[in-house]
Amino acid sequence: MRVSSRAGGGSSGSAQQLKSNCCRVTLDAAKCPQIFQYHINVVSGGDTTSTMSEGAENKGRRQPGGRRLVKSLLRQVVIDAMEQHPNSFGEISIAYDGSNTLFSPSALPIPDDGVVLNVRCSARNGYGLDPPGVNNGWSRPFTVNIELVKELDTNLLQTAFSDSTVNAKPLVYALDTIAKAGIVGRYPSQCVTAAVLGRAKVQVLANLCLKINAKLGGCNAISLEGILPLLHDAPTILIGADVCYPKMEKNSRQSISSVAASLDRHSSKYAARLAVQSGHNDVSHLPQILWELFIEHYKHARRQPKHVVYYRSGVSFSRMDDVVQAEMRSLRKAFRMLAKD
């Protein structure tokens, strides 16, 4: 196959359709010349002797026993820190990435060497509700360390377009976090191509409406009492898991796993989690995902499920036994994590 030196000049080969997305983003560097990046370290307990050097990223964000704090709990602790220590944050808008980084448009009113905050968090599991048996007013101590890491120059983004050697990844990550904390992360979205809308079939439009309604917290269908005794006779949670595998090619993209769980007694509302696979045959971080989904179920149903119905798709018969054993272990581990909390 001959390769043309200029576009449109080829005389051999077949034409291929190229699909691409393009968006225009403008950043007023005059209004926000810098973005301040802070490292945040959250440790369970009220010990204020830990410092940022001692509680580095890999050592921080842990509970007694070595288990890492989940993002939902981390986010709740950070929110409580802002409310309980307003002098350390002032009236500055903060964007938190849910892990260990804060971004602000101006410097926080804290010392140059950082600050250590004692925080009382009443959300035991990070979902804002006290589990059964916990009296009102119960709270849990945390130590929050905040230290300035770097100042990001917003003019660097424009420079990166003309100079490929400029590393703008930290700035892009900061802007992405700010966008998610501002507009993007606040509203659910539904993707649909123009070709699908152009056909405008009733079935396609009805399917889109069902998806949008579910994402907005609506209910598309309710099972009648008595039809499914397992769901109505006792609190039951339905869980479904699947894995999307890319093509079997060298240097191929990673697999994506998804898990959904019911939130109400009619199994009409669901919460979902996604994760990038660390391996080709397992659902990565499944115990952590199940832990979070059980918490979401309790948050909405206000009671613990007595039955768990688990559906798994995308498993061949040759691997079924291995997958069943592995994911049963993940379920048991999630139960132990709940028992500790």
TrEMBL record:
<dbReference type="GO" id="GO:0003676">
    <property type="term" value="F:nucleic acid binding"/>
</dbReference>
<feature type="domain" description="Piwi">
    <location>
        <begin position="188"/>
        <end position="341"/>
    </location>
</feature>
<dbReference type="Pfam" id="PF02171">
    <property type="entry name" value="Piwi"/>
</dbReference>
<dbReference type="InterPro" id="IPR003165">
    <property type="entry name" value="Piwi"/>
</dbReference>
<protein>
    <recommendedName>
        <fullName>Piwi domain-containing protein</fullName>
    </recommendedName>
</protein>
<dbReference type="InterPro" id="IPR032474">
    <property type="entry name" value="Argonaute_N"/>
</dbReference>
<dbReference type="InterPro" id="IPR036397">
    <property type="entry name" value="RNaseH_sf"/>
</dbReference>
<dbReference type="Pfam" id="PF16486">
    <property type="entry name" value="ArgoN"/>
</dbReference>
<dbReference type="InterPro" id="IPR012337">
    <property type="entry name" value="RNaseH-like_sf"/>
</dbReference>
